[in-house]
Amino acid sequence: MIKGVALVGVLTLFSLGTVQHGCEDAKKSLTHLNYYPIRDMRATVAFVPQHKGMYPPDSLAVNTRGTERLYGLEGGELAEKLGGMLTNPVEASDSSIARGALKFTKNCIPCHGTTLAGDGPVAALFMPPPDLLAEATRARKDGYIYSYIRHGGIVMPSYGPAVTAEEAWNLVNYIRHMQKISPR
After folding, report:
1. Which residue has the higher pLDDT, 91 or 34?
2. What is the pLDDT, as a whole number, of residue 20?
3. N or C: which end of the chain has fewer CB within 10 A?
4. What is the pLDDT of residues 82-138, one digit of tens each?
5. What Å distances lie between residue 153 and 61, 103, 129, CA to CA?
6. Residue 108 in contact with residue 119, Cβ under 8 Å?
């Protein structure tokens, strides 16, 4: 009887869990170390190599770590610089325009609105974005609009991580298509 009480006391002392798990909790409390002996993550994290080879960067991607940053340009200045350098490599086909419209619906409507006039629900809370169908936007080059989408500007945040290079060019094709259909 005394041995049974002593065993229950030892199990209760070493286990922090419930009584229902009994021996399992006692085993974990005796064998589990609070800290791993090597506390440096560089030595404990396993590196899993890629299964297929490493891919080169996207051919449509704009370099964000190279010469663009050397100029010290950000936002609108960067878009002005890249506007003349970049040309749209994606053909303005019906499928490209449809993909651009879908991406616009997912990412751009909160600020630019369904009519592309800059009257989205978020625009009322901040400085409204420009009208994408107006003369000022129509006068911009494709590279400028692409750069603004990928790198952001004065009011617009950068959508580089959310929009791939091809999707950005599809958005440019969609905006140009809408400018032809209904200019303001």
Report:
1. 91
2. 55
3. N
4. 777 788 888 899 999 999 999 999 999 998 999 998 888 888 788 888 899 999 889
5. 18, 19, 11
6. no
Superfamily of segment(s) 67-181: Cytochrome c-like domain (1.10.760.10)
Instruction: Name the residue among 72, 70, 88, 78 with its Cα closest to residue 151.
Output: 78
CATH 1.10.760.10 domain position(s) in the chain: 67-181
Tokens 């879908």 correspond to what residue? 102
HEC sequence for the chain: CHHHHHHHHHHHHHCCCCHHHHHHHHHHHHHCCCCCCCCCHHHHCCCCCCCCCCCCCCCCCCCCCCHHHHCCCCHHHHHHHHHHHCCCCCCCCHHHHHHHHHHHHHHCHHHHCCCCCCCCCCCCCCCCCCCCCCHHHHCCCHHHHHHHHHHCCCCCCCCCCCCCHHHHHHHHHHHHHHHHHCCC
Say how far apart CA 78 and CA 153 lie, in whole Å. Answer: 9
